[in-house]
């Protein structure tokens, strides 16, 4: 993996797995549960200059990245609830790059996004812990991927998503000596 590819995917690309065990699922849920606090500890004392630094050349600023995480996880939570309450619903996609250019992603302080993540993840994990194996098999149809995605797979992806973006920010901090 070249340097740019490593900066894009510091923990590697998400790999779809044929089966996700209950133990894997427990680990993924714990990752999602712990993520908001872990992220807050990493960035809560950063200056505006630090938050307005791109985590890699051609990438988003850290501020945009944190707001992207909030946007993405809100969308995932809604898809999650749709899958639990409807029969394989088709979910709405969105242009995350365009969302990252909106003012609430580009220039607002990060505190609202961190607060949102804390509350959202608390609700999301609470719901996950109440599910049965049958519930985890519920699916939604993702039109961009042209396939059904189970909640078990969605949880695996979002645990990866937490770690993926955390690594972007943590690597920038190390690189800059912050």
How many domain units?
Answer: 1
CATH architecture: Up-down Bundle
Low-confidence stretches: none
Portion of residues in beta strands equals under 5%
Q: What's the tally of helices?
A: 9
Shape descriptor: globular
Side-by-side strand order of the widest sheet: 1-2
Overall mean pLDDT stands at 96
What is the tally of beta strands? 2
How do the helices and strands follow one another from N- to C-terminus?
HHHHHHHHEEH
Query: What structural class should be given to the helix and strand makeup?
Result: mainly alpha
Question: What is the CATH topology?
Answer: Four Helix Bundle (Hemerythrin (Met), subunit A)
The Cα radius of gyration reads 16 Å
Helix content: 55-70%
Name the CATH superfamily assignment.
dinb family like domain
Main sheet record: 2 strands, antiparallel
End-to-end Cα distance, whole Å, is 26 Å
Q: Report the top-level CATH class.
A: Mainly Alpha
């Amino acid at each position: 993996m070249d340097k740019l590819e490593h900066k894009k995917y510091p923990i590697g690309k998400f790999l779809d797995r044929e089966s996700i065990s209950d133990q894997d699922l427990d680990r993924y849920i714990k990752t999602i549960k712990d993520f908001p606090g872990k992220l807050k500890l990493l960035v809560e004392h950063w200056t505006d200059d630090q938050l307005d630094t791109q985590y890699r050349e051609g990438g988003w600023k850290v501020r945009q990245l944190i707001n992207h995480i909030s946007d993405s996880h809100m969308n995932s939570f809604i898809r999650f609830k749709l899958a639990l309450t409807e029969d394989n619903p088709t979910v709405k996609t969105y242009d995350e790059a365009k969302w990252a250019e909106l003012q609430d992603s580009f220039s607002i302080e990060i505190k609202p996004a961190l607060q949102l993540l804390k509350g959202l993840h608390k609700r999301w994990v609470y719901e996950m812990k109440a599910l049965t194996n049958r519930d985890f098999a519920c699916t939604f149809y993702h039109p961009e991927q042209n396939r059904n995605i189970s909640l078990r797979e969605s949880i695996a992806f979002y645990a990866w998503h937490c770690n993926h973006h955390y690594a972007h920010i943590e690597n920038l901090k190390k690189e800059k000596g912050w």
